[in-house]
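LAB NOTEBOOK - FOLDING QUEUE
OPERATOR: T.R.
BATCH SIZE: 2
PURPOSE: Compare the predicted structure-token outputs for two unrelated chains run back to back under identical settings.
PRIORITY: normal
REVIEWER: second-year student, initials M.K.

ITEM 1
FIELD SEQUENCE / FIELD STRUCTURE:
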Amino acid sequence: MFITNILLKKAKSKNILVLMESAVSGHQFTMVRERLADKLELQRFDPYIQRMSLYRERKRLRSLN
């Protein structure tokens, strides 16, 4: 491997953008989390059903700087 290949490699970003989806109604929003962290699960107000609902990480969308 040449030294130029080592210098030109991109570093992986620390954060990623993920899609969160409600387990009840399917409402979605995006959130930022660290790349090495576990998948997110949180309770948040769901505007479709006007109540608190469980949101789970659905998929990774992109890397952030």
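ITEM 2
FIELD SEQUENCE / FIELD STRUCTURE:
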Amino acid sequence: MGSTISPEHFQPHVDLYPDFQEAAEAYKAAEVSAEHLQGNIEEEPVIDEVAEAQQAEGEVPQSPIHGVTVTEVVPEGIDKKVVPEGIENKGLTLDDFELPENLSQLVMYGEPIPDESTPVHPGRTRQPGKHARSPFTSLYSSGGSTSVGPKFFYLKHPFTSVIGENVDPELTERFTNWLYIRSDKVSRRRKYYFSKKDNQIKLWLDFGCEKIDKKDWFYDLAHPGQVINNTHIDVIMYYLRKRGKYGPNNNTRFTTTDCLFKTKIERIYDKFISSPPEQRYSVVKPEDDVGEYILGYRILANVAWDLVDYVLIPVNLVENFHWLLLVFDIKDRQLYVYDSMVRANRHKTVETLVDKFSIIIPLYLSCTGFYGKRKDINFKSTKAYIEKPVTDPLDIQWMVAEIPQQKEGSVDCGVFVAAFAEYVSLGDLAIPKEDLSDIDQHRRRYGALLWDYATKKQEDGSISESEVTGRLARRKGAPAKNERTRVQRKKK
């Protein structure tokens, strides 16, 4: 039978912390003093002198772990703690001390294994206040919650009612009250209809391609006798594109351009005409701006032209202070001109401009590979294409008797262009004159529909889906995801 285990068999517990702490502090103080002595005192000779003095007196240096402090020898006049021999600048480690043979309470670990080490917690991403947060950035997450994306508005566009139908009277009244509130407080001698304060829309209204923060914008659109500008036309054309892309009421396959398209056509035409005849066709390239319009890029909610039957092109004649609409009928290879006020003194200017479109568009259709994508165009049987080079200019059809005309001296041509485009987008190339007899009613309709759409989106705390075309996809020769949306005819 084994002997009884008594308390003296146990190795007494050794508390290492005070000794380690003392040694570490001594070393740190020695490092600070060493910086002042660099170049004047050499450390190794000092250590040798200390060792010799200790050996002569029979004193053996011991580790602090045994409870004995290493004797310090400081040269006269210098306050310096000597670093124990064997301790380099890398700092103190367990290897610098003599440990008891049976000491089991102290374990020496190596470097931590990266895969097994605990990762640093990233902490919480704080959500900015509502006044510092843009409504167009995704929401932040807090703690371990999942990120919440922006809320998209359920309506794609404001044109859910068909042009010519009466707008809800209550909507028109609400819009009118909002538009003209406090306008009677403005002096008649003022140049602007609203005061600076009342003109400001504090929470600007977002129309996708434009952000509006002034009431003047709605006043110019909805009030009789006011001139509408490029931004009005661009907003209306943008939402017509979205209606043609997403529906409803999209029996006709169409798309539109913006007002800048006219400038692009004129610029490339001038370059084309000024080039030598043998170099003209090299001027037209698919990566040009006009080519990007045709491929379905460049503007928001664009659709490639090989997927539609009509392209609606608003044109602003700046020098004549006039708007007109061009409609490119792809199957008939025809360019229709919708002009709400035909004048003899202006016709030559309009005719010259339209000729530029008829010449340049076919060249870009050819260089972008447009005709190879149209399965419904047979070059041997389709009348408009039989025995005709695809680079020939387009035929031009002037629409005068078939469309309403504005009153002499009025500045309503921009509203007529918007109405023409909306009718053509429904498949009506010939527009009954009586439908636009009250153009002021159409002004109020556009103003009320756009205002109601933007305010509802704002009240809902929503944004519209991004309709931005991707540059990377454009370089690869294909639209971004969901960008090339095919517009289908509805079955009758």
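REVIEWER COMMENT (ITEM 2): The first strand starts at residue 200 and ends at 206.
FOLLOW-UP: none requested
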